[in-house]
Amino acid sequence: MSRYDLVIRGARIVRPGAARPEPGDIGIENGRFVEVGGRIVPGTARVIDADGLLAFPGVVDSHQHWGIYNPLEEDTHSESRASAQGGVTTGITYIRTGQYYLNRGGSYLDFMPQVLSRAEGRSYIDYGFHLAPMQNSHIGELEALVDTFGVASFKIFMFYGGHGLHGKSDDQSAFLMTPPGERYDLAHFEFIMRGLADLANRRPDLADTLSLSLHCETAEIMRAYTERVEQDPSARGLAAYSASRPPHSEGLAVTTAAYLGYITGFPNLNLLHLSSARAMEAAEMASVTYPELNTRREVTVGHLLTDIDRAHGIGGKVNPPIRARSDVEALWNAVHRGAVDWVVSDHACCRAEAKFGDPPSDVFAAKAGFGGTEYLLPGLVSEAQSRGLPLGRVAELTSRNSAQRFGLSTKGDIAPGLDADVALVDPDADWVVRAEDSESTQEYTPFEGFRMTCAVTHTILSGRIILDDGTLSDEPHGRYLRRS
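User: That's the sequence. What structure does it adopt?
Assistant: Structure tokens below.
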């Protein structure tokens, strides 16, 4: 008789970095993988007959934004369901003080208990948080955030000091809710890095776990170009928004971030959602110029799947912008040559009534950000199959690399002893993206009408089936993950 709680029979198992999927069974007990490969006699265990489906490690979507436009407790519920639809079993959300999210400033030691309370018991997937030190006092709280709340990854929004979330802004202190007299600028970014370097030096146990993510765009460049674009009557839609935040704005910010990491001695930098050839070029040059740095390069599924001409309407407004097709192909070239470390969704559910301004066709009146975690794995596998990208590389990009970087030691692979997180994928499915089919509360998607050539059929979280042949479970069982 089998000693397992769940057996997946007849799968093609996709291991990170493997040349090809390997046929075999998967035995799961007490929420962990016990046996991987070969033939398992199931006995009384529950059995999923995979019948040749691809078994990917559960996706670690390490860039989401629950609670940015909707109450955190609502997003935790609905957007985690959308995550599970796409084979995501772990989501890490960027969150900060200031406007949006909880709409409050002050200490993170007061802020985080509220965050955890609002999310508790509502998520269908395992989840964690990244935090952004927005004011000087937050730098002094870094060690407590690691030890008390298990938050070991932090973020800088490099353009916030001189540009708003959605466009031009003349009152950043009100937007950021920072104390009087403080500035969110390059000096603040430097002091964050010095604070992290000091913590890593005092606490060698944290040196490999601490990391700093950076949204790399340059406010001064964007402000000047936005004024030019807005004066051009022919500029409209996503092309106009891309022109208002040009690719060299990203490249300049990447270069600045790398130099600050070099001079402060904090090496673990994550360069987020690189959207253009210029940004990727700067990121690769930084690694050569500063070999002391331990940088990682992130790309989103949105920037890989669509462009300014193909995206479905200005619902595709996001920071940094969706780009031209030439930038999309440059990103795919970077994926193929190993220059991209992980692919994420940057999921930020923004309902239509909040997304679109007056008039609805004005891209500069719209808010930035959209959802898409449910299309992360299907979209990447669909493109991989047409572009000849090995599926083992997809498993690295969607699961293992993020898990390793962000201290999720029990995630990221299908191997004995790890959390039994699995996404089963039908590689021969053929379907069309419709926003109405998503569990997200967002009523539109820039991927509307896109054809996918594979589909997630089952999502398994710690041995528990949370998506069963396309149907979600009734109860949320996701856990908060402490990463310290």
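The mean pLDDT is 95.
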